[in-house]
Amino acid sequence: MTAFVNRINSAARNVPTWVVYIVLLLPALFLVYQAFFGGLGRDPVKALEHELGQWALKLIIAGLAITPLRRFAGVNLIRFRRAVGLMAFAYVCLHFAVWLFLDVQIWSQIWADIVKRPYVTIGFAAFVLLIPLAVTSNNWSIRTMGPAWRKLHKLVYVAAVLGGVHYIWLVKGIQIEPLVYMAIIVGLLALRLRWPKRATA
Amino acid sequence: MANRWTNTLTERDVTPEAAFLNRRQLMAGAAGLGLVGMAGTARAAQETLEPNVWEDITQYNNYYEFGTGKEDPAEYAGALTTKPWTVKIDGMVDKPADYALEDILKAMTIEERIYRFRCVEAWSMVVPWNGFELADLLNMAGVQSGAKYVAFETVLRPDEMPGVRYPVLDWPYVEGLRLDEAMHPLTIMATGIYGKDIPNQNGAPMRLVVPWKYGFKSIKSIVRITLTDKEPPTSWNKANAREYGFYSNVNPEVSHPRWSQATERPLGGGLFARRVPTLMFNGYEDEVASLYAGMDLKANY
C-alpha cells in the first residue's frame, strides 16, 4: 500500500502543473466540438449547459478530495489543487455563459430568473462566491494575505454545497444523479470535521 | 364523428417527410441569405409553422418510466411490448369493458393533426400526429350523464421499464381531464407520427394529446380510461402540487415556481436558436378559452 502511494506521489512530482490545465480543458473542447457537430443530441444548448455544470461540480469535488486524500491515504496532490480549482471556476463560467447567451438570451428575463428562481439564485450565489477565490489563486495573494487567505478559501465549502443544491433543485422530481453528487460533497466536507483526539501513527 | 377541427398549421395537407426535409433545407438556405425573417416573426404567421424532424420528435422525450434522461426513452423503450394491447374503459360508462386496441382502431377515423407541443420545461416542438378524437372513443363507450372527469393510466411493467425502479413518481403514471376538455375536438388519441406507427418512446401504441396543455398532461401508453364524477389524481400534481396543477394549461403569464413560462426554446434550431414568446393556451386560445371562461387561471394553474 505505502509502496503504491509512494509511486503515485513520485509520479505526481514529475507532472508539471500546466499539464493539468491542458487535460482539464479537453472535456470543454470536446463538448464544444460535439455541440457544433451534432454529438449532443436534439437539444445541444441544454446538453452543453448541463454537461459544463456537471464538469464544474466534478472538479469542485476533485478539489475538495485533495486534502482528505493526503490526510487519510497519504497521496499528495496538493500542488495540483490550484489548477483543479481554477479549472472548476472556468467550467462554472462557461456553464454560466451558455445559460446567459444560448439558453435564456433575454436580458430582462436573466435578471428576473436570478432574483426569482431559487435554483438560479443559488447557482449564481455559488458563482459569485467563487470569484474572490479565483482572483486570489496566485502566490502573491497567498503571501500578502497571510492567514486570511486560508479563511477566504474555505468559501469553497459553501459554494460546493450551493452547487449541489442547485443541481438537486433544478431537476423535475427526485432524481438519483444530483443526490449522488450532493452525497459526495457532504461526505468530503464531513471528513474535515475535527474528530475527537485519537492516537496517531 | 371525425374531422370536426380543421388544421390551420400548414397551408397544405400532408407534407411527405422527404419533401418536407428538402423544403426545410431550402428554407435554411434562404434564411442564411437573409431572405427569411427571424424565427420569431415567422412564428407569428401560423401558416409557416412546420413540424420538427422525426429525430427531434423521437429522440428527445420525457417518459420517466424509461429513465429521466431525454435520450433514455429512445434507448430503452424498445423493450415495451405493445401487441396485443387492451384498454380498460370503466367507471361511469354504458359499456365498461377491456377493449382490444385493434377493435378500437376499426371504429375510429385516423386523421393528421399538426400541433404545437409545449413542455412545462419551456421547450417546444411541432408534431404531425396521426390519431382520432378522444370524444369518438368516449362516445363509443357511452358516457353517463353524471360523469364530470376522465382519468387515464399508463401501463406499468417493471420488467420492461427500467425507470420505474426509482421513485421519481408514484407509478403508474396517471392523468386526468375535465369531461369538456376530454370531449373537445382538439383532444386526440395519437397512434402515429408522420404517418408511421407511433414509436414506443412517444407513447405507443396510443397516447393522449391535449395541445393547449403542458406536455405532461398528454399521458402515454394508455391502458385504462375511467369516467368519474370526482377530479382524478394526476402524477405530477401528487409529486409537487405547488408546481403542477390539475389544469396545467399553457399560460405565459403564470410562471412555474422555478422558472418563467413567458418564453420557450423551439427545438431543432441548433446551438443559436432564438427563444420565442409562449402563446396563451399554446396558440389555441380561440378554440379553448371558452372552456375556462370566468375561471381564475392563476389559482387554477
TrEMBL record, chain B:
Keyword terms of this UniProt record = Metal-binding, Molybdenum, Oxidoreductase, Signal
Q: Which domain of life is it from?
A: Bacteria
Name any cofactors this protein relies on.
Mo-molybdopterin
Under the heading Pfam families, the entry gives:
Oxidored_molyb
Give the SUPFAM superfamilies listed for this entry.
Oxidoreductase molybdopterin-binding domain
Q: How is it modified after translation?
A: Predicted to be exported by the Tat system. The position of the signal peptide cleavage has not been experimentally proven.
Reaction catalysis annotation: L-methionyl-[protein] + a quinone + H2O = L-methionyl-(S)-S-oxide-[protein] + a quinol; L-methionyl-[protein] + a quinone + H2O = L-methionyl-(R)-S-oxide-[protein] + a quinol
Q: Which GO terms describe its molecular function?
A: metal ion binding; molybdopterin cofactor binding; oxidoreductase activity, acting on a sulfur group of donors, quinone or similar compound as acceptor
Cofactor binding, note field: Binds 1 Mo-molybdopterin (Mo-MPT) cofactor per subunit.
Top enzyme class of this protein?
Answer: oxidoreductase
Task: Please cite one Gene Ontology biological process associated with this protein.
Answer: protein repair
The text of the family note is: Belongs to the MsrP family.
The entry describes its oligomerization and partners as: Heterodimer of a catalytic subunit (MsrP) and a heme-binding subunit (MsrQ).
Name of the protein described by the UniProt record: Protein-methionine-sulfoxide reductase catalytic subunit MsrP
Tell me the organism.
Pseudosulfitobacter pseudonitzschiae
High-level lineage: Bacteria, Pseudomonadati, Pseudomonadota, Alphaproteobacteria, Rhodobacterales
